[in-house]
Amino acid sequence: MIIRVSEARVRPERFEEFREMIVSAVREFPGRYAGLVDHEVLLAPPDSLLYVSRWRGEQDLVEYAGEHWRDQPVVLPGEDEYLDAPLRVRHFTTAPLG
Question: Of 13, 25, 35, 43, whose CA is between 20 and 30 Å from 5?
Fold first, then answer.
């Protein structure tokens, strides 16, 4: 499993609008991307939002984000107007605890 974290630094005065746009956009992702195991939007008002998604594997991320999934975020149309900085994307795998 690969965990993808996209971090948005949002203009505080646009935070609520941005939250609504992101939640609306990602709501349909489970039906569109078979490799998406789980996802959530994490909020840290007034200026930070994370989109966390969990994927079965690398090929599933290629289908979602393209060949450059490791270093290029998926940017929705018009998203830049809400942001103070470019989106940041990171990937994680889990470490066994036992």
Answer: 13
pLDDT digits (tens, 9 = 90+) for 21-66: 999 999 999 999 999 999 999 999 999 999 999 999 999 999 999 9
Give the SS3 label for residue 62.
helix
Please give the model's pTM, rounded to 2 decimal places. 0.93
Domain positions in the chain are: 2-92
- Reduce the DSSP state of residue 56 to 3 states and report it: coil
Burial 37-51 (b: 16+ CB within 10 A, else e): bebebeeeeebebbb
Measured CA to CA, the distance from residue 19 to residue 43 in angstroms comes to: 8
